[in-house]
Amino acid sequence: MITRRASVLPLLPLVPALLAGACSSGQPPCGEVEHPPLQGGGHLIGDAPPPGPYSSTPGTSGWHAGGAPRTGVFGGSDALSEPELVLALESGQVVAAYAPTLPDDQVAELERLATDRFAGILTVTPFEGDMGAPLVLNAWATRQPCQRVDAGTVATFIDRHADEAAQQGG
Predict the structure, then answer these.
(1) The whole model's pTM is what?
(2) Three-class SS of residue 142?
(3) Are 80 and 95 in contact (CB under 8 A)?
(4) 69-87 pLDDT, tens per residue?
């Protein structure tokens, strides 16, 4: 009986593409946790803009909206303003701010995490400014830029940094 071996030669052109895919999936979804300079600042009246720039984008401390924070899942024209985002951080929330370029399935994953697993602690909002990444996890005076949503990274960030304002006297 004669058996034939399949030739690997037709598969050789696929090897670089397969290796590239393996390498890109091995990259961490998020960068290092950053601690921008802590800014002082009080409550803004109405829709008044902050009197100066924040030390990070989005802001993680400093001037913020007055009143009760808006928390939960926001989108489109209902997105949090930057002073509202900082107010949410001051109240102990973690805010996942995402760029309009974040794919819809990633936004849906964030929204699911905020309504199911981390309801009451994770707020999700689009953000129009240049954050340096498609997604940034924010807590008081703390941020972590991400290239994509990773539930484990979100959980770790929340575990370590939720309610950071109370710990730092925000």
Answers:
(1) 0.81
(2) strand
(3) yes
(4) 999 999 989 999 999 999 9
